[in-house]
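Sample entry (279 residues):
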Amino acid sequence: MDNSNLNNYQNQLAPKSRWPKILIIILLLLIVAAAAAATLWQYGYLPGSDSKDINTNTMTDRITNQTNINQTVTATSPIDSDNDGLADAEEAQYGTDPQKADTDGDSYNDKQEIDSGHDPLVAYQETPIIKDCSTNIDCLIEAARICNPAKLNYSISLDMGPFGVIDTTKIYLELKKENNNCILYEKILAKEVKMSPEIREQALAAGVTEEQIAEQEKISTESTAFLIGKEMSCPFTDYNQIVDLLEKLETGTFSSTDGFPSEDCTGSLVDMTKNDVIL
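Predicted structure, serialized as tokens:
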């Protein structure tokens, strides 16, 4: 083959040998570009991609769910750091110390003081709030179970069988707390002596007049006037002893032999007796 024919032959073959290579290169570039675009789209760096939003929303949802869980736990299980019955949030409202069950140090925890009407920030001995039970002895009995300060005006009627009289004593009772003792304070307000119905009937049958009976009752009442104003305070370490005493007063089963332990009592009424103090 001469040179001219060789050149013509090479010119015919050249285009056929270059284009496949170019096409392969372009195809490879397209594949690389497509892979890069897919990667960018996946991570949200191309318009129309919402992957960032999806990831952000997922994280937001997780945070929101965790917040809801925390709120639920807080709502159902309030934190009570000092275990006094008041949640820390309530302590903040009352101004009490969430790390101390008894903020004012008076031996009553904060919840007890609030429930009983006391100031949890002021020691009981300083400004005691005394519950007024009026004439309701059940109120005083309930207060005595935990020695909550309370007061009562009460009438006790004792049938002095052998003497044929009924002795009625009006008293003032008050519960106080000092250190570990529950103090029962008593003061006599009034006394009255009446004939028992049985003795009255016998006296009338024997010819004694109503006027004579009334006069005798007046004399008997006046004979007990020296007790009016007398008072005493008795300490109890066992609150149940006070409860038992008050329940006997309520049921009418109290008698002069159910007196207070005079060896621990103080006051003018204690001097009336040596072993037992009568009401």
